[in-house]
Design brief:
5-stranded antiparallel sheet, globular, 16 strands, alpha+beta
Amino acid sequence: MPLTPRLRRRVWIAALAVAGVAASAVTANAMFFMPPAPPKAVPTSTTTVAPPPALADTTTPPPAATSTPPPAETTMAAAVPLKPQEPIPPNAVRVAEFVAECPFTHKLPDDPIVLPNLAGASHMHSFFGNTSTNAHSDVTSLSKASSTCSPKVDLSSYWVPTLLVDGQAVEPTGTTFYYLGEGVRDDVTARIQPLPYGLRIVAGNAKATAPDNTTMSRWSCLHAGHVGASKDFVNCPAGTMIESYLDFPQCWNGKDLDSPDHKSHMSYPVAGDCPATHPVPVPKLRQVLRYPANGDPSKFKLSSGPGFTMHGDFFNVWPEAEMAQRVRDCINRIVKCGPDGRP
């Protein structure tokens, strides 16, 4: 049936509407499904970025510490705490010295240095200081005993052959043990170190057959300076006392507290200094004994023989801090100190 004009116009309007809907659908599809634009290129930078620091390798040990030892003064201070050093008094006597007064304690035919653990095997000895000394003494037993010394802290043991006058034992009434910085140059005195704890020394020659260079002791008369000193007994006038001086060596080898002959680990100084074999200067022990005897020397004898066999044994049991403080305050500074370790 032919379309009337009015109907054709309605069909045309409907077709245009359908075409508009289709166009809108295409546009929407383009909006939602269009592939994304490629990203813009980023310009290449010429700056170099440092990598993060590497973690420490905990399996690798740190470099070894320097092997240079600390100074002797530092070592001593670390091992032995000392009291603060006092200033030198204006009236101090400038002599490198401290002392111990150690009266006689007992006598025995023992010698714990030369003949250890052999009771009764020695000639008779007179002992001073430590009250317990016998053939079995060692540093442990001595450190637990008492002492006649002033100061009481000195638990060292000192002994000598017994003096016989007309066959009878006579003990000294004056028993002073000086610790000295003399006999070496001042610069050596300044670096003197404490006597090591447990050190054992024998000075003199108990087996001497004549007064020779092994005779380190001297005999003289108290208050009778006109009588010359001698390696053998001397004739002291009435009213005086015969006295014995004995100097111990003051240079240590730095390692041994004793030696097979009880002497080789020590040495006397040479030309004011310690020899290279014994490089460590220590205080010189001087033993001064005064006996209530005088007159004809033919009536005198030591348990070891003639006067030139005089010898001394020393077993150091000074507490380390006490010895170190006296060396620092009295010896190194060249100041005369009393038994209390003070000027």
